[in-house]
Amino acid sequence: MILTVGGKRALMPIKYYDEICTFIVRELEQNDGLRFVELLDKADSVIGSEMRGNLSWYLLHVKHDLQARNIIRVERDVNRVQIIQLRRKYKEKLRAFRAELKMPSGTDRS
């Protein structure tokens, strides 16, 4: 995957993107909302050993992509701490999809 930031291009392996994207959606589905720091700590303990490079950079860029695609929303509290949540419409689509496949919530097919 090629991400463009300020006119510069950066490369992220599609495997990393898919893995981080799945991780973020699964964590946010299981928790009503997470602070970015909490999400980063969980990612480091769950998938950090599987990736080479800067996990926080990867996580930040996937988070921005999911936000641009209206899958997640990011709010800031009075201390400017980022609270990340799945958008309601996306949650409903996930539930309908899982009901159709008869999959339990919070699991993926891999």
Structure description:
The chain is α+β, with helices and mostly antiparallel strands and 110 residues long. It has one domain (13-101): Arc Repressor Mutant, subunit A, CATH 1.10.10. Helices cover 51% and strands 18% of the residues. It is built from four helices and five strands. It has helices at 14-30, 36-46, 55-68, 88-101; strands at residues 2-5, 8-11, 34-35, 72-76, 82-86. Strands 3-5-4 form a three-stranded antiparallel beta sheet. Helix 1 crosses helix 3 (55-68). The longest helix has 17 residues, at 14-30. The protein is globular. The protein starts with a strand and ends in a 9-residue tail after the last helix.
Summary of the model, kept short:
This protein is an alpha+beta fold and 110 residues long. 51% of the residues lie in helices and 18% in strands.
As for the CATH topology, it is: Arc Repressor Mutant, subunit A
Given helix and strand content, the structural type is: alpha+beta
Strand order of the largest sheet: 3-5-4
**Architecture, CATH level 2?**
Orthogonal Bundle
